[in-house]
Amino acid sequence: MRFKLIKDPVHGYISVSEEELEIIDTYAVQRLRRITQLPFVYLVYPGARHTRFDHSLGCMHLAGEFADMLGLDEYRKEVLRVAGLLHDLGHAPYSHLFETLLEEHGIGHEDMTRRIIREDEELQEAVERSGVEVKDVLNVLEGKAVESPIISGPMDADKLDFLMRDAYFTGAPYGLIDVKRIILRSRLIDGRLAVNVNAVGAVEEMALARYQNFINIYFHHTVRGAQILFLTGARLLGLFSDLESMSVEDYLAFDDYVVWCDMKRSDKSRWVIERLERRIVPKVAYELRVSESFPKEVLESSSEVEERIASMAHVPREKVWIDTPYVTPIPFRKDERVQFYDEVNGELRIVDYTSPLLEFTTKIYGIIRVYTDREYIRDVREAAKKYFG
Known about the structure:
- The chain has a single domain (about 5-280), classed as Hypothetical protein af1432 (Orthogonal Bundle).
- By secondary structure, the chain is of the alpha+beta class.
- The chain has 20 helices and 10 strands.
- Strand 1 (about 5-10) and strand 2 (about 10-15) form a beta hairpin.
- The chain has helices at about 20-25, 25-30, 50-70, 75-85, 100-105, 110-120, 120-130, 135-140, 150, 155-170, 180-185, 200-220, 220-235, 250, 255-265, 270-275, 295-300, 300-315, 355-360, 375-389; strands at about 5-10, 10-15, 185-190, 190-195, 285-290, 320-325, 325, 340-345, 345-350, 365-370.
- The longest helix is centred in the first third of the chain and has 19 residues, at about 50-70.
- Helix content is about 50%, strand content about 15%.
């Protein structure tokens, strides 16, 4: 079997077979070159220009390394690599920013990924020519395979790659994770992915790096301000309002470039693009850190809260935005928790392990931010203080 080498700044050289290269060269996969991994993070970290395509190659690579360490046969290894490559196919433009628009229709990018794999003939034919059955890839992505946790789990190839990659391209020092140790010390035990208790330090590094990435990169106040502004323009344009009737071909035709140009051409949303081109983004007037739970009305009717604060501040309704980002917990309890094992007399056994650092990452940590334009900051800040008490 002949291989091609792809130079990746995070993992070094990534080997791909000619059959895998055919999958990579399909339209559905190549589209990921035009889907930003971290939308508008470049406004704060200029190097953050990487894409879902880069990440998908990295996930495929790490999935293969997991397969080697777990002793999977060549066929299951290839299934896992293809699943890693295709796991993000369904992302809308601007990645998780537009996930909100998908969720309003009751679906997520994972659902769109599976739909694309089922309905895209070019992609299906490329996968089948590689010797992999499409149904086996879908089983991994649907959580039905023993190896599914390697693609989607507490310590999967997806998380390990994006944490390292996002840290690398932003230049932030939060992605220093001993990925090799996690992979080398991982085993599949009773259908669950577990890590040797001796490697708990590497797992703690991963958990804390994830938390730091969220707080310092993904939830940076300027980044979120730009994202809120862009999402406002997308809503004005009615993007994905016809998602239910949209074909896979139509969906794949949407990428970052198309959306940006559509918004710039439209009289409804051009003002958003003009602001972003000059980096004029909403400013934080008020911030509240919360743990475990948000005020119910903020999550369920944020638009009403925005309207109330705008009224109290005597500013235009459209000049107040509320953002509620939160760090989702890493499972460390119950059935989906991070599992550890120990080796006693040559026998692998799941063991209970309590770590203060991992316990910290099982909680939800969130932020409530009230944004407005610079000239209204003082009035909106006072109104928000009164509203949130």
